[in-house]
Amino acid sequence: MLPYKCISEKKQKISSGEISLKDNVISFLNRIEDQKDLNAFNFLFPDDALAVAAIVEDKIKKGTAGKLAGMVIAVKDVLSIKDKPLTCSSKILKNFTSVYTATTVQKLIDEDAVIIGKTNCDEFAMGSSNENSAFGNALNPIDKSRVPGGSSGGSAAAVAARLCDVALGTDTGGSIRQPASFCGIYGIKPTYGRVSRYGLTAFASSFDSVGCFANSVEDMASVMQVMSGRDELDSTSSPKDVPPYPEELNNLNKKFTIGIAEEYFGKGLSPEIKLAVEKLLGFLNDNGFNTVKVTLPYSKYTIAAYYILTTAEASSNLARYDGAHYGFRSADSSSLIDMYRNSRSEAFGSEVKRRIMLGTYVLSAGYYDAYYRKAQKVRRLIKTDFDNAFQKVDIILTPTTPTTAFKIGENIQDPLQMYLNDIYTTSANLAGIPGMNVPVGIDSLGLPIGAQLLAGQFNESKLFQVAKFIESNF
Amino acid sequence: MIDKYEGVIGLEVHAQLLTDSKIFCSCSTKFGNEPNINVCPICLGHPGVLPVLNKKVVEFTVLMGLATDCTINERSIFARKNYFYPDLPKGYQISQYEEPACEFGVIEITLPDSTKKKIGITRIHMEEDAGKSIHDSGYSTSVDLNRCGVPLIEIVSEPDMRTSSEAYFYLSRIKQIVQYLDICDGNMEEGSLRCDANISVRLRGETRLGTKTEIKNMNSFRNVERAINYEIERQIDILENGGNIIQETLLWDADKNKAFSMRSKEEAHDYRYFPEPDLFPVFVDKEWKDEIAALLPELPFQRRNRFIDSFNLPEYDAEILTQYKDIADYYEKVISSTNDYKSASNWVMGAVLKVMNEEKIEIKNFPISANHLADLINIINNKTISGKIAKEIFPEMLKENKHPLDIVKLKNLVQITDTTAIGIVIDNVLSKFPNEVEEFLSGKEKVFGFFIGKIMQETKGKANPKIVNDLLREKISSTKRIME
After folding, report:
1. pLDDT (tens digit, 9 = 90+) per residue, A303-325?
2. Min CA distance, B131 vs chain A (Å)?
3. I want to staple B15 with a disulfide (CB 3.0 to 4.6 A). Which of A354, B37, B184, B414 is the partner?
4. What pTM was computed for the model?
5. Which SS3 state, helix, strand or coil, does residue A258 take?
6. Chain A residues with beta carbon closer than 8 angstroms to that of B280
7. What is the bridge-based pairing of β-strands B102-110 and B116-128?
């Protein structure tokens, strides 16, 4: 479909003149136009993208280009780009323009990536289907009657439909891995603290991670290498050195031990997905990987702990959208309290309101100990589960989601059912560990199935190496 | 009636720290700029921004903790205090709640009768200031966010004070300490030092605490005293009339000399504190604490005691001289050029402070340099001039920064100590007033003063009074001998 498989090949072909970067950007823009019904993008920056493409093409030919030269990247509309709109797919940030650029995006720009636009998502990254968007839902390119997953649904759809090379997403409880699984592409959520959050609109600060979607492991590894690292503007970012992920891709140690946790194969898991993941496990076993069982006994509390803690943080993080300083302000307000109440009532969507209410409740006097404090303890126990497991294994292999992509509207009336979509992904955010979706096949309806690889903190290299092995050999 | 009761007072004092930049971003903390100039996306609370802690704030907080004998917690955490207000762009204030930086301290105050009292410090924590809402006369409210994110420490006392005067001296002590530490300018009128009071009353002898109210918005030392007195009297009045105190927050109105209810307990905010996820806990290990401790200057009470011990000053003098660091510095400069510590103290506490108060000038701008003042004392002590002349010279020194001796010479005010010269003047006067001499000799001692006056008039006050006195008595007595 595209005349290259990954960024290294693309760069080489631009260098040799076989591909024109400018034409490549134009063809992406045309594809986006042709597949407008996917509703993957909130905003496009064709002029900027073409201008940068011309400069970068020149740099590539001169041999002075950066690591991501020529890579056409879409950015989830929760990340700031100076002088560009930032809406988080919410009415409350309608007409808001960022005055600064997120560290992650700046790092991509500094390495000569071409930013093509901003992608659709669930409002403030809250959702698993991209149905909670003020811009309407994005569609799954594999089956347009189905959701692309969420919250980074637009990014996943854009990459799966080849509307860009790579897209940035954010993952608070599965918002990269789940849509990657639904759309049949790669998606990684790095270790908490591996990538700067500066410029990422906060949903749940101690869970949010910036990651990406790609059609190849190499592209994913290249982007993650550039984005990772300490940022003085984010106190929670890690000073640990960033390994050269793309160069290490083939340094695979087949002695890696793969763990399987039975807690991730219980009730509610689609048999087809179970089969596909087991098939992958068998393949890895046959190819020299050790496979062992591990237990993660606190798994059953992940959804509860996750929704208490993330909504608590969200209720505070979203307090700033109050109509006072920027964003939407209700025209109908006669007092300060009215202004707050009406602005927030009129402009937030129902899922965001639901989470603000829940978060406000669990932090309230008299309930804090029973909910928030207890959930914090559970979070520590879940982390300990993983610490113990990663004493024995390098990777834990699980399904990414219990089902493949569901129909638009299928779960929207049932928040609990919707939340259960995150049952296998939220634990990585609670524990702060990296997780990745690897496409492993299709079900009987032709819908993509994803497997999730989890590793210990700062062990992204292991994920990339195993994923590369699967990509090449499975 | 009032004697039946005692007040119970605890203070929450906010001190704005004198760091160059804000607590969580690099914006300037400069006071008095055009509105909304010292701002950036971080202190404006734009989507996606994150706080980064200014280390200087921790250093200043620990200094205050050390100066007030607090336990410096090795680990402290920031928390979000959630509430909606237009001067708070994030919808929450980053403060400390469950694990503050410093705890369990004490401040000793000296009361006017020289008794000392220890006031417990519950905690000292770090937080960010909010912006300022400016309500103009119309319907609109403007918001200035320059102050948003300026670092504060909140110093919370135990309910250890019993009177408004104790509260006044406690607050003065805090101001004195922060100024000595150079971490806050201590200006209540400009709001760099702010104070809220928790007040309850109870019958004397009762050990349980009564229902308390909180008074806010007292923007001067005087208002703190007045508001506390007002509230204690109000509460006693209610109790005496059989009523109950309602737990509420009151706002002090200095113009009306009254406090008005701001919100009741039921209307009180639920701040929904929880640990700030954007900042890791702050660790002040022994090494850092020692580094900060090494920066501690001499503290006010240490300096006061040194003034008593080394300069032999009365405690009263030492307390006044050390009240302000720069005045104590001035005093020490004076006595580096004179050994007469007590005279130096009298001059500084008397004439110097009087001029400072009257002219509203700060000691750093005081027109008389410390060594000139020392020399003034020295030339009194070496009898170059009399104390009386010194009092005339002092205003001249204020006018122009001249050495006192230059003024003495210019005005020809050198004291006459030459007995021959003085003798001639005395002889002249005695010969001019034979009748008065007669009177004196016949026992009218009063006339002696008349002669002194005349002699001083002749010498324009420059004659050494002791010499005049001795020589006059000698000469007048010898006249008597001659006449006999």
Report:
1. 999 999 999 999 999 999 999 99
2. 13
3. B184
4. 0.91
5. strand
6. 235-236
7. antiparallel
Residues of chain A found within 8 Å of residue B272, distances taken between Cβ atoms:
315-316, 360, 363-365, 368
**Known active-site residue A316:** no
Confirm if B109 and B117 have CB atoms less than 8 A apart.
yes
Q: Which of B52, B89, B280 sits opposite A233 (nearest CB)?
A: B52
Written as one letter, the residue type at A220 is M
Instruction: Say if the Cβ atoms of B49 and A198 lie within 8 Å.
Output: yes
Distance, in Å, from the CA atom of A115 to the CA atom of A41, rounded to the nearest integer, reads 12
Contact A394/A258 with Cβ under 8 angstroms? yes
- Distance, in angstroms, between B266 CA and closest chain A CA? 13
Asked, for residue A259, whether it belongs to a domain, the answer is no
Per CB-CB distance under 8 Å, the chain A contacts of B80 are 316
Contact A202 B48 (CB under 8 A): yes
How many CA atoms lie less than 13 Å away from A437 in the CB half-sphere?
34
Please indicate whether, in this complex, the C-beta atoms of A197 and B53 are within 8 angstroms of each other.
no
- Residue A427 among the catalytic residues: no
Residue A308 placed within a domain: no
Can you tell me the distance from the alpha carbon of B155 to that of B152, in angstroms, rounded to the nearest whole number? Answer: 10
Domains of chain B: 2-292 (no CATH), 300-410 (no CATH), 419-483 (1.10.10.410)
* d(C-alpha A290, C-alpha A284), whole Å: 8
Mark yes or no for CB contact B52/A236 under 8 Å.
no
* pLDDT tops 90 at residue A1: no
Read off the CATH number of the domain in which A200 is found: 3.90.1300.10
A467 vs B432, residue with greater confidence: A467
Q: How many CB pairs under 8 A join A and B?
A: 98
What is the share, in percent, of chain A residues with pLDDT greater than 70?
100
Do you find a cis peptide bond into B164, omega within 30 degrees of 0?
Answer: no
State how many domains chain A has.
1
